Structures are given as C-alpha cells and as structure tokens.
Amino acid sequence: MDAYERITRNAAEVVTEEEIEALADDPDGKRAYVGYEPSGVLHIGHMLTANKLIDLQQAGFEVTVLLADVHAYLNDKGSFEEIRHTAERMRDQFIAYGLDESNTQFVLGSDFQLDDDYTLDLHSLELETTLARAERAMSEITSGDSVKVSQAVYPLMQALDIPYLGVDLAVGGMEQRKVHMLARDVLPSIDREPPTSLHTPLIADLGTGRGKMSSSEGVTISMEDSRDDIESKVNGAYCPPTADPEPTDDGEARENPVLQVFEYHVFPRFDTVVVERPAEYGGDLEYDAYDALEAELESGELHPADAKGALAEYLDRLIAPGREQLAE
Ligand code: IYR
Where does ATP bind (predicted)? Predict the structure, then answer.
C-alpha cells in the first residue's frame, strides 16, 4: 500500500485530495493531529481516529494528540480540575491502545491556549466570524439547543489550534468537518494557511444500526468493558446479512454496525481475521481483507452469529491492553 492509500484508506472525506497527495509525497517532517475533549474513558469513537493516527504514523507522519482540556471546559464537561485528571488517564490509554509512543506528542490545550498571542489571534477570529457561522460549526458537536458564548468561541479555538500546533493535517470524525471548513475560511484572515483535513466515518449505533454510536446514548464499546460486556453487546448488535440494510419503517437510514466495526476497527489492525466454527458447521473461515468477509456475510457462507463471535474476540484483543491499564 503506498503512502497516499494508507493515509486515505477508510476516510469518509479528505479536504482536499490534491493537498493530501502533496503531503504523501513529502518525505519528512509532516505532522498530523487529532484533538479530543478528555472524557470518562476511551471508547470506540476515540479508537476510530486513533486507528487513523496509527495509519498516518506508518505513512511517515509524526502525530500530535491534543488533550483539549480548555475545549472540554468550554463545552461544559466539568470542572477544570476533573478534566485535567481525566486527560492524564487518557494519555496512558492511547498508548496502551497502540499509538507509537516514540512518535506521538501529547499536548494539553491549556499549555498554549492561554498565551497572550493565542488570545489576541482568537479575538481577531471572533471579529471575522458571525455567531450564526460559529453556531453552525458546532451543530454536530454539542447537543444542547441553546449555544452558550463559550461554545461559539470553541470552534474558533479549534481552528487556531492548527497553526499553533504547527500541524499539516487535522484529523477528526465527520462531526468535526464544519469546524475544519470554518478554519479554512477564517484562518487566511489572520495570514495563516487554510488547513488540510481528513474525516473518519461515523459508525451507527451497535444495537440498532441507526444514527451514530455515541457514549451518551445507545450501545457503545469502551475500554472499561470486560470480555463479557463486549460479548453481550456484540451478541445483541443489529446484524442483518447485508452491508446495505433497508431503512426503518419511518424512513431512517440504517447501517450494519457489525460490518462497520470489522471494516474500521478490526481489519486496519489485524492482517488476518479468523472466524472460528466447529468442524460440523464447515470449520474455521479466514479473511485477509474486509471485502471478503462482507461478501461471505451477504452470500450466507458466514452466519451473522459467527461474525459476531469473531467480532467480540477481536474487539477484546484491541481493548484488553487499555483495560489492564485502567485496572492499575
Ligand atoms: N472538537 C473535538 C475536540 C477538539 C478537537 C480538535 I482537532 C481541537 O483542536 C480542539 C478540540 C471534540 O468534539 O471532541
């Protein structure tokens, strides 16, 4: 797989392809980052962007993980003290999850976002941005109906983080795309380059295949889950024998979250996936690419129950190191 393919595999969107091509061809000194609001425990959403960071490290990027403590504070996630404490634990969990420690720089937002220069640049961006635009940028990030002033400042700070961290590529889930588009529009007003970004897909709720998997509602997988928790969540998952399920009766789109987790979590981290089956049911199945597994689920060769059994096994392998870390 060449650098461009590794950078872009499993991405829902890149902005822009030409800019990513130029980065792929750049032999050294390129840096990518993801920012995370420190939250209770690492979950499958964090792990999806972390997989992309691992791809980027393999494609020659150095990686920065921003533990966005000030952003979490602005987004009403608790006292500053609590958020700081959580940020420290998250760092250890990311390393346990598989980020290459020698190549990953962890930065706290408060290490640079309270500096004079940053604050003045932030105020310049505030002058350039309407409240309506800031509010739109946040529509997929906050859930409350009324946007506080803090939440309008939030996307402008996220935009400013990109030049202040000196990164060439901003990575995030699709819910971050409007913030990155805002950054492309406003950063030139303070003589900064419009940033290049890459967005990972959103995975549907494990239980229903609707909407997106989140830590606040529905079924999700976290680093705190025991092997039994994982098995029971995966066994209860929505998994019709197709990658393209019918919408619900009320017209809501649905995905197959079991296949999505294989595609975006398991295959990027394991070269081969073995689905164990007793000899009387045909014996073990082995896949070295996601498409082959999807095709056999659709043809009926792979039964959803066997797919779920294998998924629980591989998710457990991904989560076990972080779970052990948490237990210390
Ligand atoms: N908005 C992110 C957190 C975040 C991301 C980046 I990239 C930043 O520079 C700052 C904050 C979230 O929703 O978790």
Answer: 215
Asked if residue 238 is part of any domain, the answer here is: yes
Cis peptide before 16 (omega within 30 of 0): yes
As for how many domains the chain has, the answer is 2
Would you state the structure tokens that stand for residue 184, as one six-digit string?
Answer: 């492309």
Same domain? 129 vs 181: yes
* Domain match, 304 and 236 both: yes
Q: What is the side-by-side strand order in the sheet with 31-36?
A: 13-15, 196-200, 169-173, 31-36, 62-67, 104-108
Q: Is the CB of 151 under 6 A from ligand 1?
A: no
Q: Residue 148's domain spans which residues?
A: 3-200
Long-range contacts of 286-289 (CB under 8 A, 24+ apart): none
Do 165 and 33 share a domain, yes or no?
yes
**pLDDT by residue (tens digit) across 117-134?**
999 999 999 999 999 999
**Annotation: binding site for L-tyrosine:** 33, 154, 158, 161, 176
d(CA 81, CA 79): 5
Nearest ligand 1 atom, CA 109: 10
Per residue in 193-243, pLDDT (tens digit) is 999 999 999 999 999 999 887 666 778 899 989 999 999 999 999 999 999
Q: For residue 109, how far is its CA from the centre of ligand 1 (angstroms)?
A: 10
The verdict on the CB of residue 158 being under 6 Å from ligand 1 is yes
